[in-house]
């Protein structure tokens, strides 16, 4: 099946799967063509400033208001499992890649929440999840708590959403907006990766400031799917995440039945190789903010509710510098994952599919082996190849879930052991 995409981040898009299904002008929304139902999906408040307002009009076979009551989802899952309520030590933490789940596990049951930092009801904060699954979803999922960013680490995903179909592989990412229903299929039979769940203001491209008009993520490289729909009258389970818990009900039809839509709230995909990395070409080491692909601002200017930061292949060209990230403490909390290759500040123990956490004011930086290598490296132009790491940085401290605390590496602090003491004259 060929999938078509429309480029542009946040553009107003109009697309229809059946010619004539999309109303034009005053034909909308009183009597849409073919008896379709008009429904607005709002991702922001109605009165948000025009440049921040995100919403789309959907024209569908049935209204989403038609459904039975939700009941608690009874299956044992680790998705939305809640944070650990005991006092949280200020320790640095790291995890190995999640093991593959038992046969017959779909994306919902294969999701594990690792880190959370706010109650979704606050409309702030972010959660970091990992997934490992080996079965196509036969049901539909919808997240009322936040928008979801998929970061595959192994195996391709086909995400069938109300607004279109998105195919992604490791090295690509996709976003599904809050409230959009979808199903995940696995073209390779199994898949693993990460999902960032943003409960706060919508992810957007960061302002570039002195960088100017170009660089980092360019709007035209974000691809939105064209309209696609299912006309299927058979029982379909719908699982919804709401205020941190999972709920379920069953429809007598597929809810992925949007025949046409227009607006600027939509799923999208992005190829990480198109990120235009900015780096130093003189001396010193620039702040990691220059690697920001997406940002979710908080109420404090310059302090992000969540930033999605990339560390891709790139040239390192500078003199009188220490090229890996320096030793640092800061007020932002950093959750880092590795999609492929190695991370330049860690020699071992941080593998693709793994995760690390450095909460606010936790001292961190390169491990001993990386520090020794960087301290004696010839500062010639050098290109870092074969890697892709990312960070979900937040102004709110992360709380690991009980599952995450029980499965953390026991010896992570040892990577900073045995640094030699400086010798004064």
UniProtKB/TrEMBL annotation:
Molecular functions (GO terms): homogentisate 1,2-dioxygenase activity; metal ion binding
Cellular component annotations (GO), alphabetically ordered: cytoplasm
Binding site for Fe cation: 328, 334, 364
Protein origin, superkingdom: Bacteria
Record: active site: 285
Keywords: Dioxygenase, Iron, Metal-binding, Oxidoreductase, Phenylalanine catabolism, Tyrosine catabolism
InterPro entries per UniProt: HgmA_C, HgmA_N, Homogentis_dOase, RmlC-like_jellyroll, RmlC_Cupin_sf
Cofactor(s) required, per the database record: Fe cation
Binding site for homogentisate: 343, 364
Coiled-coil annotated spans: none
Residue intervals of the Homogentisate 1,2-dioxygenase N-terminal domain: 5-272
Enzyme Commission number, as recorded: 1.13.11.5
Gene3D superfamilies: Jelly Rolls (2.60.120.10)
Top EC class, one word: oxidoreductase
Pfam family, one: HgmA_C
GO terms under biological process: L-phenylalanine catabolic process; L-tyrosine catabolic process
Ranges of residues in domain Homogentisate 1,2-dioxygenase C-terminal: 273-421
Family: Belongs to the homogentisate dioxygenase family.
Name of the featured protein: Homogentisate 1,2-dioxygenase
Protein source organism: Sphingomonas pseudosanguinis
Taxonomy of the source species: Bacteria, Pseudomonadati, Pseudomonadota, Alphaproteobacteria, Sphingomonadales
